[in-house]
Structures are given as C-alpha cells and as structure tokens.
C-alpha cells in the first residue's frame, strides 16, 4: 500500500477525543454542501488538519463563505450550518 505524500498531519485529535483524518474531509468534487460536510471542513482547518488556503482551493470556496461557516459554528454550533436554520441564526 502506498501513501500519498501530504504536507501537514495525516490525522488530528479533536477536543472530544475523536481522531479526524484527511479521509474524513468531503471529496474534492463536492457540489452539495450539507451541514456535516461544511462542519468537517471547518473542523479540519481549525484543528490544523488542512491549511485554510488549501481548503479554499480544494473546495473552490471564497474566503467570505468559509468565514461565515466558521462564525456560524463559533456563535451557534454546527446546527447553524443547516440551510433550514438560516433565518434562525442569521444576524438581524
């Protein structure tokens, strides 16, 4: 078995004790961004699994869009990433 050479860690331990690997990140070809995929990218960046610049490039995200995901998680938790909750968690 051959491992692809990657910069940075292959796995990180999250505060709850679970281990997150690059395999836990959504596929690069993701078109439909459900809350769990957004949360995985946010966790990956925040805990050092993947640099933000790489995440933005891989997933073709704007910096503003990614920042809005991070802010939503920081302010209201991962529930805020659900599109059905936009009105509930949106700034007035």
UniProtKB/TrEMBL annotation:
The lineage of its organism: Bacteria, Pseudomonadati, Pseudomonadota, Alphaproteobacteria, Rhodobacterales. GO terms for molecular function: sequence-specific DNA binding. Signal peptide: none annotated. InterPro entries: DUF1153, Trp_repressor/repl_initiator, WH-like_DNA-bd_sf. This is DUF1153 domain-containing protein.
């Amino acid at each position: 078995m051959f491992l692809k050479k990657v910069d940075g860690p292959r796995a990180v331990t999250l505060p709850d004790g679970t281990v997150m690997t690059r395999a836990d990140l959504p596929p690069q070809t993701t078109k439909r961004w459900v809350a769990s995929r957004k949360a995985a990218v946010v966790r990956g960046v925040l805990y050092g699994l993947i640099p933000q610049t790489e995440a933005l490039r891989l997933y073709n995200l704007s910096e503003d869009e990614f920042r809005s995901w991070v802010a939503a998680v920081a302010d209201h938790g991962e529930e805020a990433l659900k599109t059905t909750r936009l009105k509930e968690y949106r700034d007035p």
